[in-house]
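Appendix B. Worked example

We walk through a single record from start to finish. Start with the input: the chain for Protein phosphatase PP2A regulatory subunit B, Jimgerdemannia flammicorona, length 437.
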Amino acid sequence: MAEAEHNWKFAQCFGDKGDSEDITEADIISTVEFDHTGDYLATGDKGGRVVLFERNESKKGCEYKFHTEFQSHEPEFDYLKSLEIEEKINKIKWCKRQNAAHFLLSTNDKTIKLWKVFEKSLKVVAENNLSDGIRPQVNSSPLRLPKLTHHDTIIAAVPRKVYANAHAYHINSISINSDGETYLSADDLRINLWNLDISDQSFNIVDIKPVNMEELTEVITAAEFHPCHCNLFMYSSSKGTIKLSDMRASALCDQHAKMFEEEEDPSSKSFFSEIISSISDVKFSKDGRYILSRDYLTLKIWDINMDSKPVKTINIHDHLRNKLCDLYENDCIFDKFECTFSGDGKSLLTGSYNNYFHIYDREGKTDVTLQADKSAFKAKRIGSAKNKMLTARAKNGKKEDVNVDTIDFNKKILHASWHPNENSIAVAATNNLFIFT
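Next comes the structure step. The output line below is what the pipeline stores for this chain.
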């Protein structure tokens, strides 16, 4: 990788720029997603809101401005199970754009919605028969029809479809198929296939629910359609496996699947082995050749044609191996870090603690560590964002030592999205959205 490719810099931040520590839970960003062009960007938060940003064409470089905001989900109550259903947005996926309107799917734990976002012209009555003092006379004076003139343009968001009552467990993933007509939704035990146009029925394509729930040994953690082949999709599990399934093979795809799994070294087995091997996210590269998976301590790259072991394993949190007991007690060991490929598939991105996130090349030779932190504003005012960037180059395969005692485990980068066509990334840090280019 050329030196120039390390020149990441902080570009923008949306959100509360003050140093207020009293962040409300509802404002915490829970998902980030660029659309297929990269000209639009969506975030969802724990308060059930979706905020859209659009590229600011008047500015050079990758800069965004606020586009619109709408309330996507409200808190609900499941009376059958006496459970409160949070309004938190788990995932947003953009549909490929076909006309002037945008369509996007958003989901909380139970209900998926298809939103149409479009420009709407507001019109006002400009003139009518009574406007100039003329009283209409039926035979002598013609009746004038009221005229409407354009007053303003607003961005409207309306729910076009609501896909409900198909999941008994928490929805963790939605993925739109390359055919543009279908999408999948995955919860802890099942994956359903939907037609975007039909909201009252779905097909169950994976069901790992045992007859006796006491025999439950794993849950589904993420699922995604192959970017090119509309019959293929993959899903990951809490057991550290990834299954690649073909919908043409069988109605239920969990039996006929190619399994990607790395055998664990028995000598390193511990109480925490199963927790830290649980995969929190999986992504295909744009060409569908590689799979990226993230577990608690590592990032793995798999070749779709080689299921025995990953082609590359990158240790992200090696320095936390001795801290697993503390991380179990403060629940951090269950944090679900996402991962993503760059548009060209040559780079990888995933988050860490202290609001750090890492950008690696596919060979794992370079590690650029950046911090999505409010001090970036101050750094920008000084005129250099470079002091916010810690290029932790791999030295003989060993990284610099990290002082574990100084890590702030409340600050973590769980959600990020990579621009589809260029080196720009959007990163969620608590209630702020950071853009780096």
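Two observations about the output. The mean pLDDT is 87. The chain has three helices and 31 strands.
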